[in-house]
Design goal:
By secondary structure, this protein is an alpha/beta fold. The chain has a single domain, classed as OB fold (Dihydrolipoamide Acetyltransferase, E2P) (Beta Barrel). It has helices spanning about 1-25, 35-40, 40-45, 90-95; strands at about 30-35, 50-60, 65, 75-80, 105-120, 125-140.
Amino acid sequence: MIAPRCCVIVFAAAAVLACAPIMGSHATAAAKTDVCTLIARPKDFERQLVTVTAIVRATTHYSMVLVDPNCNERTIILAIPDSAEKTADIEKLRAAVFAGYPHAPKTRTKAAVTGWFNRASGRVPMRTITATRIADVETAAAD
């Protein structure tokens, strides 16, 4: 009886290892878009992984939003999960966005944010991106 069980275990392990490259190749690619498009067509991106390059602003001492001046200053909440809280890019983003807070910012921070987009029609917050990656954090003098 030991031999058949051993063969089943070996076969199952071989099947998993053979499929590993296939399963890994189906990683979700982020859709590149912008704040205005997400606001105008939220159903098209609901629960999808997106990448947005936008201005990031502080709204309260711990909250940030993504904004694009081309769509009437409407915003998308930027949620940072606990698992990403202490990464170098998140800390760089927070330091830039909250510099001098709560006074008017003397700089403007821009970043490429990749994360899961969600909308909640009729509720607040209406639009949220839960970040999985922050990149290209840039700070420039405010207009």
